[in-house]
Structure formats: structure tokens, C-alpha cells
């Protein structure tokens, strides 16, 4: 299993706050069947530029525990900002050697402007946008409103593992998966307590309710993008 969304870099953002916490998070992820992951710390264009972010990220990478066998692809979770499709430097924040850019959408109504900016990313930046934790927009109804239009414009979707834990949210996430609107799974893990990795619960439920082929397809999609196949 590949975890496309994590905050495991020590002291980079509101995720792991120490090397020890990172080591423990990596150990748990591995126990949950993860073999590869994307480290995707928050990037806010209003706070720093990509250059400053990358310098900070480089320092955090140097502090990563060395004893893990997990393959780690470094990227970012880029918060949407108007006109982001014209910011060439964002190509430096893509995940590893892939062309994937993890984008965090606004937690309010998505305007047509927001959607058009996102849909312009492939042609303007040559990147494939992946909307982070689409399950978190379930209550707003935004994802259901725009998912077809976004998918038609080469936008992909990542769902958080925690969505599969509870009733209504689990039913919603399974429906999206079965209808082909979830491309990647992520733990979006931040720490060992309130936002710990919960991938094994998710994979068990997907396998049981949607089928082993669906789960295998998710793993294959992630591998294809990350390994450039
Ligand atoms: Fe996140």
C-alpha cells in the first residue's frame, strides 16, 4: 500500500514534532501495510515562497530517522490560492519524481474561479492536481457538485483513511470508490494521538465492501504515478 498524504517530517508543520514521533509514525505505517509514502507538509503561499519552503524541508529531511525501509517521496500539500496555475515554482513541490501536485481545497464554497484555476494546472504547469482528502468536503456537497468536471480535466482525488471509520462518511467514501472517483488513499497522519495513521481499517473495509480488485487498483494507480509508468 502506498500512503499518498502524510505529515511525518519532524518539526516541518503541524504534523510530527520530533524525530522520535516520526520514527514511531513510520513504524505504525509499516505495520499497517504501507511500503511507500509521500511526505506532504503544508505549503501556504501566503506565508512563504517555494524556495524558503524547500530549504526548510531539506533540513527536516536531514533529520529523518535513517532506520526505515519505507520508500519516501517528498512533496507538499499545497493550499489553493488564486492564480496558482501561473506559479511556475509550484512544479518544485510535486511529489517525488511524479507529476502529482497535492492540492488542499478551500473549506468553504468552491467558486467557478477556484475550479477553473485547478483545471488549468495540467496545461499551465504540466502537473496533475490531486485534491487532498476529498472526504472532508462531504458536508459542503462541493465534491459531488464538481467531481465530473474535475475528473474530465485530468484532476485526481485522494481520500483519507479515517473516512472509512464511521457510518455515513464510510458509506459516502465507498460510493465514491465504487463510482471511480477516488484515485489514492492517504492517512493524512499528523501525530500518534488525535491524527494517527488508520490505513489498516480503511483497507480492510474497502476489501470487504468494494472488493480486493478495487484495493489492488488503488495501489497500482499510486505505483504507476510515483514510478512514472
Ligand atoms: Fe494533510
Give a written overview of the molecule.
The protein has one domain (2-226): Alpha-Beta Barrel (TIM Barrel). It has a 6-stranded parallel β-sheet. It has a 3-stranded parallel β-sheet with strand order 1-2-4, with helices on one face. Helix 7 crosses helix 8. The protein is globular, with a radius of gyration of 16 Å. The mean pLDDT is 96. The chain is of the alpha/beta class. The chain has 8 helices and 9 strands. It has helices at residues 19-31, 50-62, 112-119, 121-125, 142-152, 167-178, 199-209, 212-226; strands at 2-6, 36-39, 42-43, 71-74, 77-79, 100-104, 128-131, 156-160, 184-186. Bound molecules: fe (ii) ion. Fe (ii) ion (FE2) is lined by residues 5, 7, 77, 132, 188.
What labels would you give this structure?
single chain; 6-stranded parallel beta sheet; TIM Barrel; 8 helices; about 230 residues; alpha/beta; binds fe (ii) ion
**Spatial arrangement of strands, main beta sheet:** 3-5-6-7-8-9
The share of residues in extended strands comes to 15-25%
Average pLDDT confidence is: 96
Helix content range? 25-40%
Task: Examine the secondary-structure arrangement and name the CATH architecture.
Answer: Alpha-Beta Barrel
Question: What's the story with the biggest beta sheet?
Answer: 6 strands, parallel
Specify the CATH class: Alpha Beta
**Looking at the structure, what is the overall shape?**
globular
Structural class: alpha/beta
Distance from N terminus to C terminus (CA atoms, Å) equals 17 Å
The CATH topology label is TIM Barrel
Structure annotation, total helices: 8
Q: Report the bound ligands by name, code or SMILES.
A: fe (ii) ion
Number of strands: 9
Uncertain spans: none
